[in-house]
Write a structure and sequence with these properties.
This protein has a 3-stranded mixed beta sheet. With 323 residues, it is an all-alpha fold.
Length: 323
């Protein structure tokens, strides 16, 4: 029993060292500036629009409920990683406990999965709004929206919760230094001297069940939307219908472009691309959508823009009771 406990202590580190961005240690302070600026914009923008959606009756509609979910997940994603990254860059606080690392891993992957799911729900929302405009309010009722949001959250939790357990069971004898700014599932598993085949297979399966399924639904939704828009007789009507999707398309680009780059570069160009580039893109993948989504929707969505302008101009705040 004593020997077993000693072995457990040797193979399960008390803490990990997050090494930031290896190879760019001398530039950590400069790299922290855009990270900090983007995080500040993300927090202020997402909180501001969440407040606006909550208290403006004119925004109590399905589209804005989905937007609130998107803004909320963006806040959780960025707040799960960026404060720790900034503490590494500014104060060299690199240590994170073993359990703390697993908790961070769970939250990061759960909410990135939920963000993907919300983007999929928003694509379905645009499909119903454009293809079935007269039945929009009867199809997307508040109970349906609540169930859709809860299902997306539960999907993320149930699929991601095995990650910490699969990682915790591994023996670690290759040191405790993680060349990253946060605890990513595979970055931690690669420190193990055990068999990580199950981790790799399950990670790919989760990527397909979440990312693959959501991208398929988004593609099908926009194919149907495109067919419906093209069949409209008036050019102005076509432009107006498709313009309602512009902000959502921008969100999809911001969310999936860094993810695709990381996925394909790891598998087909991993040896030619510096590790520092992979880590920077991984952070952009988590930080760019929460930063840009409030900006894009604040500019592109007329109802949100009008509410913001009215509040900033000091006009009388009149709640609209239209649904």
């Amino acid at each position: 029993m004593i020997t077993l406990n000693q072995t457990d202590q040797m193979t399960t580190p008390a803490s990990f060292i997050l090494n930031g961005i290896p190879g760019l240690e001398d530039m950590h302070m400069w790299i922290s500036l855009p990270f900090c600026s983007m995080y500040a914009v993300a927090v202020v923008g997402n909180c501001g629009l969440l407040y606006l959606i909550c208290y403006e009756d004119a925004l109590h509609r399905p589209m804005y409920y989905f937007l609130a979910m998107l803004f909320l997940t963006g806040l959780f994603i960025s707040s799960s990683t960026i404060p720790k990254a900034l503490s590494i860059f500014w104060f060299h606080f690199k240590e994170i406990s073993f359990d703390g690392c697993l908790i961070q891993m769970f939250f990061v992957h759960t909410f990135t999965g939920m963000e993907s799911g919300v983007l999929m729900l928003m694509a379905l929302d645009r499909y119903v709004a454009i293809c079935y405009p007269l039945r929009y309010s009867t199809i997307l009722t508040n109970p349906v929206i609540a169930k859709a949001g809860l299902s997306t959250f539960l999907r993320g939790v149930l699929l991601i919760i095995p990650f910490p357990f699969l990682t915790k069971r591994l023996p670690y004898c290759r040191g405790n230094v993680i060349p990253h700014t946060y605890c990513d599932h595979m970055s931690v598993a690669k420190l193990s001297c055990g068999n990580i085949k199950v981790n790799v297979i399950y990670g790919l399966m989760v990527a397909l069940l979440i990312g693959g399924f959501d991208i398929l639904c988004i593609t099908v939704s926009y194919t149907m939307i495109l067919r419906a828009v093209v069949s409209l007789s008036s050019a102005d009507t076509r432009q107006k219908a498709f313009s309602t999707c512009t902000a959502h398309i921008c969100s999809i680009v911001f969310s999936y472009s860094p993810a695709f780059f990381s996925f394909f570069s790891h598998r087909f160009g991993g040896h030619r691309i510096p590790p520092s580039c992979h880590i920077i893109v991984a952070n952009i993948y988590l930080l760019l959508p929460p930063t840009m989504n409030p900006v894009v929707y604040g500019v592109k969505t007329k109802q949100i823009r009008d509410c913001v302008i009215r509040i900033l101009s000091g006009s009388k705040y009149i709640k609209s009771h239209s649904i």
